[in-house]
Specification:
mainly alpha
Length: 101
């Protein structure tokens, strides 16, 4: 059975009304979601120093350290000035572990 043009137009209007209600409901839901998210979010400028410190990590690589052998153990030193000092002390120390300064 074929629908008359007035029936087709009525069905089209019903579909349009349903689509409009659905879109309005989705828009309201989206606005509610955004409002809830905004209530939970905090800007970085509002965080304290201790809270900011928890939000980052620092990559550390083995190449960032100076490696020394001490009594059969590997000792890693990150500070270049300290590493230079330890290296000079190692050059001045003989095999018995005593300093020849």
């Amino acid at each position: 059975m074929e629908l008359s043009s007035s029936d087709k137009e009525r069905i089209q209007h019903q579909y349009d009304a349903l689509a409009k209600k659905t879109l309005v409901g989705e828009a309201k839901s989206h606005r509610r979601t955004l409002a809830k998210r905004a209530a939970r979010e905090v800007t970085f400028s509002d965080l304290s120093e201790s809270e900011l410190a928890q939000l980052f990590t620092t990559d550390e690589y083995e190449s960032d350290y100076f490696r020394f052998q001490v009594s059969g153990f590997d000792v890693l030193v990150k500070n270049e000035l300290l590493a230079t000092s330890v290296d000079i002390d190692n050059l001045q120390t003989n095999d018995t572990g005593t300093c020849s300064c």
